[in-house]
């Protein structure tokens, strides 16, 4: 069979080795006679799977003990509400930076719980760059500062970590670039990431949170939306998404075998450079995002002649290059090249794009 490369933005491709291992262990996990899907989350087998996943993540990112790792459900979207519910801590305002469609969603949800100060926004010219921090207007009374490190739809990514002042905790939605490069966890109060982009299957959202921020949720916060409850119960207050945790744990082990986050960054840079250089080398393709702020994970591009879009997608698919259609709100194409996408996949895409441009220019 020809090798297929899947450029979906999410749920996205997983490392082949991980899927192979899950396949091998599907009916009988480590001689237990059970599939992971059939195990009690409180049994010793699954407890060891969850424990290992946490430990491997701690090692990969170098997470100190005073940060809690939570495996929750409800997707990254649930965190748009859980963050203000838990982190306002008696305050009434929060700072948000608006750099794309996911930031905008987080802001909209936060407005249900507090006064949002939009410290900076690139909405007016269509989310194609990240405003420098010297242009931000932070509120000294904000309970926290929230930003989105990678805008999955718009293809803009922070290549730097914002400075937060006066011990105001920094909160980040890292759904689509977590573990794609080394990460200094100590700069953050809270990190969250839906799993289905760069970690594992849909159904799981990862939260890493500094312990001292827990314990003062808004009055009326549902039990299940209180981080402290999950932290105290080691993410086992209720049934966690067990199979998604298992697969994500396999992905952590895979990342360690690749050489960890520094090694991933090198590969991810090589992939992104190759693709952007190819797009920039011709006026047949165009990427609207400012060069300094381009995402290494999600590469949006348009064809000069949009009448060729359908033909491009059709021929790409015939060549084993799947799910390149851009988000419905942006149009054109989008190639998502997360950790699991090998360099070979990007090389094949670039070769196809060059040939297509030669033929139709
Ligand atoms: C996909 C995505 C979300 C939403 O994730 P769900 O799991 O669908 O709730 C939020 N933020 C970013 C940056 C995303 O890429």
Which features characterize this protein?
Aspartate Aminotransferase, domain 2; alpha/beta; Aspartate Aminotransferase, domain 1; binds pyridoxal-5'-phosphate; 35% helix; globular; seven-stranded mixed β-sheet; 361 residues; 14 strands; three-stranded antiparallel β-sheet; 10 helices
Task: Compile the SSE list and pairings.
Layout: E1 5-6, H1 16-25, H2 44-61, E2 67-72, H3 75-87, E3 93-98, H4 101-110, E4 115-121, E5 145-148, E6 150-151, E7 156-157, E8 170-173, E9 190-194, H5 195-198, E10 205-210, H6 227-232, H7 242-257, H8 260-280, E11 285-286, E12 298-303, H9 309-318, E13 321-322, E14 333-336, H10 343-360
In short:
The chain is an alpha/beta fold and 361 residues long. It has ten helices and 14 strands.
Could you explain the architecture of this structure?
The chain is an alpha/beta fold and 361 residues long. It has two domains: 17-257, Type I PLP-dependent aspartate aminotransferase-like (Major domain) (Aspartate Aminotransferase, domain 2); 260-360, Aspartate Aminotransferase, domain 1 (Alpha-Beta Complex), CATH 3.90.1150.10. It is 35% helix and 16% strand. It contains ten helices and 14 strands. The protein has a seven-stranded mixed β-sheet with strand order 2-10-9-8-5-3-4. Helix 2 (44-61) crosses helix 7. The longest helix is centred in the C-terminal third of the chain and has 21 residues, at 260-280. The two termini are 31 Å apart. 43% of the residues are buried. The model has no long low-confidence stretch (mean pLDDT 97).
Say which molecules are bound, naming each kind only once. pyridoxal-5'-phosphate
Overall body shape:
globular
CATH topology of the largest domain: Aspartate Aminotransferase, domain 2
Fraction of helical residues: 25-40%
Domain tally: 2
Strand residue percentage = 15-25%
Order of helices and strands: EHHEHEHEEEEEEHEHHHEEHEEH
CATH architecture of the largest domain: 3-Layer(aba) Sandwich
User: Which structural class do the helices and strands define?
Assistant: alpha/beta
CA radius of gyration = 21 Å
Low-confidence stretches: none
Terminal Cα separation, in Å?
A: 31 Å
Strand order of the largest sheet: 2-10-9-8-5-3-4
Q: What is the CATH class designation of the largest domain?
A: Alpha Beta
State the fourth-level CATH superfamily of the largest domain: Type I PLP-dependent aspartate aminotransferase-like (Major domain)
Reported for the largest beta sheet, the result is: 7 strands, mixed
Helix segment tally: 10
């Amino acid at each position: 069979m020809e090798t297929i490369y899947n450029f979906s933005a999410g749920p996205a491709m997983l490392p082949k080795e991980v899927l192979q291992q899950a396949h091998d262990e599907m009916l009988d996990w480590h001689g237990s006679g059970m599939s992971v899907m059939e195990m009690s989350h409180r049994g010793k087998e699954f407890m060891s799977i969850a424990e290992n996943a946490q430990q491997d993540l701690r090692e990969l990112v170098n997470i100190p003990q005073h940060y809690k790792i939570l495996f929750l459900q409800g997707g990254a979207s649930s965190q748009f509400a859980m963050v203000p519910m838990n982190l306002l801590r008696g305050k009434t305002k929060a700072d948000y930076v608006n750099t794309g469609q996911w930031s905008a969603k987080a802001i909209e949800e936060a407005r249900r719980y507090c006064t949002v100060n939009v410290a900076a926004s690139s909405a007016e010219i269509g989310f194609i760059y990240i405003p420098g921090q010297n242009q931000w207007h932070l509120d000294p009374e904000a309970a926290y500062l929230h930003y989105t490190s990678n805008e999955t739809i718009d293809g803009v990514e922070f290549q730097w970590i914002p400075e937060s002042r006066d011990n105001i905790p920094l909160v980040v939605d890292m759904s689509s670039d977590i573990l794609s490069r080394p990460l200094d966890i100590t700069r953050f109060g809270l990190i969250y990431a839906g799993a289905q982009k760069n970690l594992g299957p849909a159904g799981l959202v990862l939260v890493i949170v500094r312990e001292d921020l827990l314990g003062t949720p808004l009055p009326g916060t549902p039990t299940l939306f209180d981080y402290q409850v999950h932290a105290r119960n080691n993410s086992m207050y209720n049934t966690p998404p067990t199979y998604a945790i298992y697969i994500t744990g396999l992905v952590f082990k895979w990342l360690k075998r690749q050489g960890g986050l520094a090694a991933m960054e090198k590969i991810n840079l090589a992939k992104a450079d190759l693709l952007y250089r190819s797009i920039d080398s011709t006026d047949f393709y165009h990427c609207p995002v400012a060069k300094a702020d381009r995402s290494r994970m999600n590469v949006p591009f348009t064809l000069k002649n949009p009448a060729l879009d359908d033909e491009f997608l059709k021929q790409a698919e015939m060549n084993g290059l799947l799910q390149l259609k851009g988000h419905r709100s942006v149009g054109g194409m989008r190639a998502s090249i997360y950790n699991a996408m090998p360099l070979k996949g990007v090389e094949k895409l670039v070769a196809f794009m060059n040939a297509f441009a030669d033929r139709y220019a």
